[in-house]
Design brief:
The protein is of the alpha+beta class and 1285 residues long. It has 46 helices and 48 strands. The strands form 16 sheets. A 4-stranded mixed beta sheet has the order 1-11-13-12. Keywords: Acetylation, Cholesterol metabolism, Coiled coil, Cytoplasm, HDL, Lipid metabolism, Lipid transport, Nucleus, Phosphoprotein, Repeat, RNA-binding, Steroid metabolism, Sterol metabolism, Transport.
């Protein structure tokens, strides 16, 4: 039977104090009497009688049947120790990565998380939610907030599938249950090791579960032994050594559930004999320990963690030293009772260990106003770092809103830390103050300023801290903390700013929204300049979506007025620069306006300071828009028109028409003026700006068309002036082309006969059926009548038949019936139907309006006549010129086909010899040989090859009327390129070609020719230019001009290559180069020369080479010589400065030494580490400046040495760290009398052969190490047994 005795902390202390007093009394009388025996000092506790069996509570019959209802929502608490926390930044608790991870876990799993931090900086997480959500959240917490460890467990390969389970369900359940990641090798992997990653606790659980699964599936013997959980530590032994020894001895596998798993079953697997032996050994241990004595002691809940130790190491340590198991209640229990279980004679030692560990840490507090907390902590924790570095085991905790600071740490360190903290608080209270001022919240953001500029300036100037409440608090109070004088000055300045803002003015400026973006500028650059100019004025632009023109200015009255005038001037300039005009330029000349690579348009833009926008390439618009100042726009317009005038036979004519008639002449959406422009070959008619009162109308275009447009415009103006009348009628859009007629013939007849003007709708007009008739009333009536008759006749659909020879059918229906589509478009949508292919018929049906059918029939007969009169003509041009004749994308050949109404067919390209030319005639002869003549087979000799006959690949075939074909042949021959030769010096060829051929490509594109440069090995001066005859002259001139430029450049290069050298002592080279090359770069830039210093391995180390124009090289040499002369006048002196002050003189990143060097214009050289004389410093410069610099340095040394000596004297009073001898000194530095402490004989830690020895030193960090502290290795035997750190 086990006996239990309750021993409280008080009774234990009383017991010990009694013994100590007793010992003290004995020692005073008897001197060195024999020490008491351990059993006398610590008598074993009496065994407690067993409780009768009848005292147990009776089992309720109802409770055994009725199950209590369980909530679907569960709550679990997980604890993450400090050493296992992934995010250890204490300052960011509640924010930063840790908080983001928790929010993400809540979103992902649906569970609710609450975080709290223990005093030991461990993290407690309370998770609430449904069971599956809590389990998922637990897994996420472990993987994302806790540092991960890994382990491997080996089980037979054939057992892996049982760990995975059906469809992987078992593995998923196991990962969720243990919050680990389990990796099982693939079936084709011979390894039998399963890798587990997660927390230490999770690893143990997962390993246990996997081994259980393996044991269940193992064909060998499996034995399960149920032993109370409290006896498991005796079976595993300290640090699991005992169970490991048993497994090694028996060869069986023993799986003891870890402390975190609430199971009593121990599973043993292996061979039957091995299992039986292991079971016997376990039962033997159990039998030996089941009657072990237990004592229960009360230990404060807050001290339990010190008894447990990091990762339970302290419990294992006690078990190893004493053989006693210490049972700690779970963290969620309120119990403070700690149970010690073991042999009676070892319990006393274990109890001593428990109390020693429990009392090794204490908690105390220091009173400090909460507003002082951040000053105590210091910037980035600097003040606290000084304390924590000396006492790293002491934890200092600040609680927001509480006027106290909590300290927790080793007892021996607490007094010193507390005194230091109290000293800091006293000091801060004596020299710090705070003040709260009331300011309207609407002024808070103005006090802060943009990007905190205002408030940061006040903080830095007065060395204070200012807290302005956030907007959502709606608080008036602003708190200022710091030096009393600084607080008063800062509060005064803030109140002045606030009162100034109360007197500020708000002004609304009306600025058109279209100017807002221009005022703000790209990336806000322009408005930034305005704000910098008026820093006290706040400028607010409306949201672009609001479509508002109001820009708000707020600030001091005078500044707002100045800013308002400035912005009004900006807008006026923009309005002036916002003038624009449109210039009509024929579409074909737009590319000339742009120029090569945009050169022309760029030049006009830069010289006139305007913006010029051209229409898109696929747009039908011919208008070029110019924006800028009015006079600049006019200048740009003249430049653009002059380019067009140079390129084409364009004339310009001005017509005077009263301005009051302009709108009526232009018509709705420009319909009237557009119809004149289209009818007169696309002339441009430019009316002056509306309201200008100018009568002049400008007409621009080809001379004949301009004259025609002038007559029509004057006629229309006269009609409008006399008696203008307008009528409208409608006709189907497909009738419009027929009504207009070919080349406008039909509509011209109507206009000539009636005098009325007829306007058809443009493509972008909404009503495509509307036709407008303008003129005198009588003319309009007659024109309307004629048009209505035409339209009526078009509505009268008839069907007619005509005969077309079948050989011509293909021409009409080819290219998907393009010819028929053109006829339908031109003649009112008439439908033409040809007989089906293969039908032997020549009848063609036409259906549509009577007049349209007749006109279409007439047109088809003209086409047939052309086809009958068609001839085929050959034009011989060498094949190598065919591509050039075709032009880019066949543009040139398409133009000839269109202009001369002929068809042109080029031969197939023949690349190799024997595929064309002379080889062709024999092939034809062979065909003739196998042909039939008059129905009989005829054999004829092969025709002789005519050497003068042209090659087939050179023959271009033309089809059409004879006269048209002849004209087309002449046009083709005119496109044959010719070649000319230009003599260019061979050494210039590579410059003409340019980098990667860019130069020659540019010339070929510009002059539309091919330029061939001879190969380098030929060493030829002749360059060939091939192209059209009219392009060759321009190309030749361009090439010769380029030769002139290159020759001039060559001459300039030879002049620039002048070299001279200057001899300068190498010691002066760094001074001539200057810091980061500043001086030498300045000389190079100023004189436009290249200066080369000698390389390290050059023989002439004193030679500096200067290359450039002769006069510039000489000037650069003189500049270098002047520097050398100045340097030669300098002296160098050495002084002795104590090496301890060097760092302070040099300053952070050399800031201090640079300041001295700049101030005294000297050079300072401090000794390198390891120098023979570490105190020697060299000063170089002009004599008078060197003396001043030396005096300054010696003064600095004297000042800094005073600080150094003071610090060294302070260090003599500092307590040396890690010195055991210090424990024998009292607070005054006097040596205390030696004390033997409490000594006993026959203690459990003493062997029979040992003598009575001195008790362990309680103040020794070696005998009583603190948690986590490193311990120096020593061979000295410990009274507590061998050390296992």
């Amino acid at each position: 039977m086990s006996s239990v005795a309750v021993l409280t902390q008080e009774s234990f202390n009383e017991h010990r104090s009694g013994l100590v007093a007793e010992q003290a009394g004995g020692s005073s009388s008897a001197g060195d009497e024999e020490a008491p025996a351990y059993k006398d000092a610590f008598p074993p506790l009496p065994e407690k009688a067993a409780s009768p069996e009848g005292t147990q509570e009776p089992v309720n019959a109802w409770t055994s049947k009725i199950r209590p209802l369980k909530s679907s929502v569960i709550t679990q608490v997980f604890h993450v120790p400090l050493e296992e926390r992934k995010y250890k930044d204490i300052n960011q608790f509640g924010e930063g990565d840790q908080a983001k991870v928790c929010v993400d876990i809540m979103h992902k799993t649906g569970a609710h998380l609450e975080l709290s931090m223990a005093k030991d900086q461990g993290l407690s997480i309370m998770v609430s939610g449904k069971l599956d959500a809590v389990m998922k959240a637990r897994k996420e917490i472990v993987s994302r907030l806790q540092t991960q460890a890994s382990a491997t467990v080996a089980i037979p390969k054939e057992h892996h599938r049982f760990v995975i389970g059906k469809n992987g369900e078992k593995l998923q359940e196991l990962e969720l249950k243990t919050a680990t990641k389990i990796q099982i090798p693939r079936p084709d992997d011979p390894s039998n090791h399963i890798k587990i990653s997660g927390t230490k606790e999770g690893l143990e659980k997962a390993k246990h579960e996997i081994l259980l699964i393996s044991a269940e599936q193992d064909k060998r013997a499996v034995e399960r032994v149920n032993i109370d959980k409290v006896f498991h530590p005796f079976i595993t032994g300290a640090y699991n050594k005992l169970v490991a020894d048993m497994m090694q001895e028996t060869g069986a596998r023993i799986n003891v559930p870890p402390p975190s798993v609430n199971k009593t079953e121990i599973v043993i697997t292996g061979e039957k004999e091995q299992v039986a032996l292991a079971v016997a050994m376990i039962k033997k241990i159990y039998e030996g320990k089941k009657n072990a004595t237990t004592i229960a002691v009360e230990v404060k809940k807050s001290q339990h963690k010190y008894v447990i130790g990091p990762k339970g190491n302290t419990l294992q340590e006690i078990l190893e030293k004493t053989g006693v198991s210490v049972e700690i209640p779970p963290p969620d229990s309120n119990s403070e009772t700690v149970i010690l279980r073991g042999e009676p004679d070892r319990l006393g030692q274990a109890l001593t260990e428990v109390y020693a560990k429990a009392n090794s840490y204490t908690v105390s507090s220091v009173v400090a106003p909460s507003w002082l907390h951040r000053f105590i902590i210091g910037k980035k924790g600097q003040n606290l770092a000084k304390i924590t570095q000396q006492m790293p085991k002491v934890h200092i905790e600040f609680t927001e809103g509480e006027d106290k600071i909590t300290l927790e740490g080793p007892t021996k360190d607490m007094q010193m830390v507390q005194s230091q903290m109290e000293a800091i608080v006293t000091d801060l209270v004596s020299r710090m103050d705070y003040l709260e001022i009331s300011v309207d919240p609407r002024f808070h953001r103005h006090l802060i300023g943009k990007g905190g500029a205002n408030i940061n300036r006040i903080k830095d100037l007065h060395k204070v801290s200012v807290r302005i409440p956030p907007d959502n608090e709606k608080s008036h109070l602003i708190r200022i903390e710091g030096d009393p004088q600084g607080v008063q000055e800062a509060s005064k300045e803030l109140l002045e700013l606030a009162s100034r803002m109360e007197n500020e003015r708000t002004k609304d400026l009306i600025i058109e929204q279209r100017f807002h973006r221009a005022i703000i500028g790209q990336k806000g650059e322009k408005i930034k300049d305005v704000r910098d100019k008026f820093p006290e004025v706040i400028i607010n632009f409306p949201d672009p979506a609001a479509k508002s023109d109001i820009v708000q200015l707020r600030g001091p009255r005078n500044e707002v007025e100045k800013c308002s005038k400035f912005m009004a001037k900006m807008v006026a300039d923009m309005v002036e620069n916002g003038f624009f005009l449109s210039v009509p330029i024929f579409k074909q000349f737009h590319k000339n306006i742009i120029g090569k690579g945009g050169a022309n348009i760029k030049k006009i833009r830069e010289e006139t300071n305007t913006r010029i926008d051209l229409p898109a390439e696929n747009s039908n618009s011919e208008m070029i828009v110019i924006t800028g100042k009015k006079e600049n726009c006019e200048a740009a317009r003249i430049r653009i028109l002059s380019i067009q005038k140079e390129l084409a036979n364009i004339t310009e004519m001005e017509v005077s028409i009263p301005s009051k008639l302009h709108n009526s002449l232009i018509g709705s959406k420009g319909r009237f003026v557009r119809s004149i422009m289209e009818e007169c070959g696309g002339v441009h008619i430019h009316f002056p700006t509306e309201g200008s009162g100018i009568d002049t109308v400008t007409i621009r275009g080809p001379a004949e068309e301009v004259e025609k447009a002038k007559k029509q415009l004057l006629s229309l103006a006269q009609d409008k002036q006399t008696k203008s009348h307008t009528a409208e009628l409608k006709a189907k859009p497909e009738y419009h082309k027929f009504l207009i007629g070919k080349g406008g013939g039909n509509i011209r007849k109507v206009r000539d006969s009636t005098g009325a003007r007829i306007i058809f709708p443009a493509l972008d007009d909404e009503d495509q059926e509307l036709i407008t008739v303008v003129g005198t009333e009588e003319a309009v009536r007659e024109a309307q009548k004629e048009l209505e008759e035409l339209i009526k006749s078009l509505d009268n659909v008839v069907e007619d038949v005509m005969n077309v020879d079948p050989k011509h059918h293909r021409y009409f229906v080819a290219r998907r019936g393009q010819v028929l589509r053109d006829i339908a478009d031109e003649y009112g949508g008439v439908m033409v139907s040809f007989p089906r292919s293969g039908a032997n018929s020549d009848k063609v049906t036409l259906k549509g309006a009577k007049d349209c059918v007749e006109a279409a029939k007439k047109r088809m007969l003209e086409i047939i006549e052309d086809l009958d009169a068609q001839v085929t003509m050959e034009c011989v041009i060498p094949q190598k010129f065919h591509r050039s004749i075709m032009g880019p994308k066949g543009s040139r050949i398409q133009g000839i086909t269109r202009d001369h109404n002929v068809q042109i067919k080029f031969p197939e390209r023949v690349d190799g010899p024997g595929k064309g030319g002379p080889a062709a005639p024999p092939a034809e002869a062979a065909v003739q040989e196998n042909g039939e003549a008059n129905g009989e087979m005829v054999e004829e000799p092969a025709a002789p090859v005519d050497p003068t006959a042209p090659k087939k690949c050179d023959v271009i075939v033309l089809s059409g009327r004879k006269e048209r074909c002849e004209a087309a042949v002449e046009a083709l021959k005119a496109l044959v390129p010719v070649t000319t030769e230009v003599e260019v010096p061979f050494e210039l060829h590579r410059y003409i070609i340019g980098q990667k051929g860019s130069g020659i490509r540019k010339m070929m594109d510009e002059f539309e020719v091919n330029i061939q440069v001879p190969a380098p090995e030929l060493q030829s001066d002749i360059i060939s230019i091939t192209g059209l005859a009219n392009h060759l002259d321009r190309a030749k001139e361009g090439l010769l001009e380029r030769v002139k430029e290159l020759t001039a450049e060559q001459e300039d290069r030879s002049l620039r290559s002048f070299k001279l050298t200057i001899t300068v002592d190498p010691k002066y080279h760094p001074k001539i180069i200057g810091r980061k090359g500043a001086i030498i770069t300045n000389i190079r830039t100023e004189h436009d020369v290249n200066i080369q210093f000698p390389d390290k391995n050059d023989d002439n180390q004193d030679q500096i080479t200067i290359t450039g124009y002769e006069h510039k090289a000489t000037a650069a040499r003189d500049a270098i010589q002047a520097i050398v002369d100045e340097l030669e006048e300098m002296i160098s002196e050495d002084i002795t400065l104590d090496a301890r002050v060097h760092a302070r003189i040099i300053g952070a990143r050399g800031k201090g030494i640079r300041k001295i060097m700049d101030e005294f214009k000297v050079d300072l050289r401090f000794p390198q580490p390891g120098a023979a004389d570490p105190n020697q410093v060299f000063v170089t410069g002009r004599p008078e400046l060197v003396d001043e610099a030396i005096d300054h340095l010696l003064n600095l040394e004297e000042e800094y040495m005073a600080d150094v000596n003071e610090n060294e004297s302070k260090m003599t009073y500092m307590k040396p760290t890690g010195d055991r001898g210090a424990s024998s000194m009292d607070e005054g530095g006097r040596e205390r009398g030696s004390s033997k402490g409490f000594v006993v004989r026959e203690a459990p830690w003493q062997t029979g052969s040992e003598k009575v020895r001195e008790a362990p030193d309680m103040s020794s960090s070696e005998d009583f190490p603190s948690f986590g502290a490193p311990v120096a290795a020593t061979n000295k035997a410990s009274p507590w047994g061998p050390k296992r750190f």
